[in-house]
Design brief:
208 residues, alpha+beta, Aminopeptidase, seven-stranded mixed β-sheet, 28% helix, 23% strand, globular, disordered N terminus
């Protein structure tokens, strides 16, 4: 599936949405900004939850300032590529849970997971619209995420949160999830949303 104008073709991220000299980019493994985006995620999670992030999503959508610093990033993974981490929290496969929530069949190939979201400053105002565009260009109709209380408010504001699928319980993770610091004290929940709703809000500026 084509990523259209979201793919950064050089060391400078391709401009797809710009405000106050910020740009967005799709940052895959091997991209010159990849390590910068990963470092931002690791630093934000360490500061917020005392969590060490040791693995990253195959695709990161990022916001970059005019100096080349990554100021916001989030990971994306298609559920058709491999099991989703958040499926540990669900009683059924994600496509089954989403089909029940929607009242009609949602195919696994239509679902993407968003995770490891980190921002500093105003980056989130560009990040969520960029996520919506990327997911829609990739053919995803639904997005799922594990979101804390604060993040659920942000997802809802940008149209990504249509409902909840399950409470994220640490005990359901392999080996009880290891050391997650204070993360589970922030009441994470598995949420879902329609990509089209988030894209519409991005186009009309709702929540931005």
């Amino acid at each position: 599936m084509s990523e259209e104008t979201l793919v950064a073709a050089s060391t400078k991220p391709h401009v797809v949405y710009s405000s106050k000299r910020l740009e967005t980019a799709v940052i895959k493994v091997g991209h010159p900004l990849r390590r910068h985006a990963e470092a931002l995620i690791e630093q934000v999670y360490a500061a917020s939850f005392r969590v060490e992030i040791t693995s990253h999503y195959p695709v990161l959508v990022g916001v970059v300032d005019e100096d080349g610093a990554v100021v916001a990033a989030a990971g994306c993974r298609r559920s058709s590529e491999q099991p989703l981490y958040l499926e540990h929290y669900l009683d059924d496969p994600v496509e089954t849970a989403l089909s029940v929530a929607e009242g009609f069949d949602v195919r696994r190939t239509q679902i993407a997971e968003i995770g490891n979201l980190a921002t500093v400053g105003v980056g989130s105002s560009l990040l969520f619209p960029a996520l919506a565009r990327y997911l829609q260009n990739e053919g995803a109709t639904h997005a799922v995420a594990t979101a804390t209380r604060r993040l659920r408010r942000a997802f809802a504001a940008f149209g990504f949160c249509a409902g909840e699928l399950a409470i994220a319980r640490q005990a359901r993770l392999p080996s009880a999830g290891g050391d997650w610091g204070s993360y589970f004290e922030h009441e994470p929940v598995v949420v879902w949303g329609r990509v089209s709703a988030a894209r519409s809000r991005a186009e009309f500026g709702v929540g931005v």
